[in-house]
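By way of example, what follows is a protein record of this kind.
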Amino acid sequence: MTDWNLKKHPSFPGVEGPVTVVVMDGVGIGRRDEGDAVWLAQTPNLDRLGSEVPATQLAAHGIAVGLPSDQDMGNSEVGHNALGAGRVFDQGAKQVALAIESGSLYRAPAWRELTEGVRQSGEPMHFIGLLSDGGVHSHIDHLLAMIRRCHEEEIARVRVHVLLDGRDVSETSALIYVDALEGCLAELNAAGRDYRIASGGGRMKVTMDRYEADWAMVELGWRTHVRGEGRAFASASEAVRTLREEDPDVTDQHLPAFVIAGPEGRPVGQIRDGASVVFFNYRGDRALEITRAFEEDGLSAFDRGERPQVRYAGMMQYDGDLCLPATYLVEPPDIDETLGEYMVRNGVSILACSETQKYGHVTYFWNGNRGGKIDDACETYIEIPGANTPFEEQPWMKAVEITDRVIQELQTGAHRHARVNYANGDMVGHTGDLAASIIAVEAVDLCLGRLMDLAESQRGALIITADHGNADEMYERDKRSGELLRAPDGSVRAKTSHTLNPVPLFIYAPAYPTLRLATEVARPGLANVAATTLHLCGLAAPSDYLPSLLSN
């Protein structure tokens, strides 16, 4: 049984004021070149931190955050899991890959239920999810493996509903993945199967909303995938090429919805009674709403019409507290004994604040994929409603409103610890707009200055870091030569995905000038932040946490 009692730190009594962890989402440490929006931005506060306070770099990708290899870029989900867990847990991508490799996924009751169901009904097995190898929400290799398994198990019909990426991979790379999928399906069809892509669209247009920011995306996905309503094409590759010809500036994540129709003009992949449906994303935030659309009896977010009676499964369970979905293929990481739970069990009051786009990251993901509060009496969660305008048009987003509210709350003296996320560097970085991303970083820097002033006046501390890189690398480069990659017209190709770069860590506690960084921590990463937070609160971390980055 867990001993929840936290002992006092043996050598540091804790700062007098609140200890605030500030996550500058998507602000990594780049090459300091023409594509590095973080370096190009005017950041007097970050510059001051870099020259005056204890500072280091943290690993925020690969094995440091529980991903299969150091070639896997970090993301907000695993980054915030690590920040809140204090340890490294194997994450979804790795667990799914192992389940497929070992065959345990196919031996599980969920897979047998799905496959036996379509054998009996004659309806197809449907797969819906993000089609890329970005590894943040899903991986095409997992999809192809499951499709081939369907063939091996003599499932006669398969339909795939593809959400195009251009965000965690190159912004116009969709045809790489569509061609690979169509090639696989053609091979299996030659062996007597009826396997087709049925519908699709860009991930920021169709289906993959999160935090209930825009249910219209989910409604469009429902009409597209389930009802087969929308503009029809003969193939997904034809759809992508045509839509690009009509709008040469459109990137994959914003491609309109489409359906695939047969020669007679009818959609090839409506989801009907008796079908089995797998949502093959393993990350939860952009999977929950479509899951609710399939499973929730009283859903009022939009009119589904007559909901088909299907067997539905997620790649993983996306919310353990809400038990969504009820059926899933791979067990999610069991992240227990989080920093938040230790704190509330020791009476430490917590404030968590961000705008809608990252609200779940400072709550759900920080708490180990746990929905809701751990202890209502000790926790205050504040969501600043995000805007629905394109991020590049308002790159400051809601940074000022977040800062106003955090300062207001901390001035009450009610919170010993706060965690804050500024989404700008990530959300604007994903647009590929360098000028807007520079403004985004500058907006965060201005807000940091205000939090620094408050920390100084309250004799508190700030831990300033990021969950992964993004705005630090806005141009694509050849992986071998490092040379900039260019489009056919000669323009530099924008990079919209996360990076493999380290992220900064600054400890700002001006009333405690003797604080020093520990020198013995090998390859510090995001998971070390939890023990560092407790250290500044005057508390010793649990014995299995990665060590504090402070030596005092």
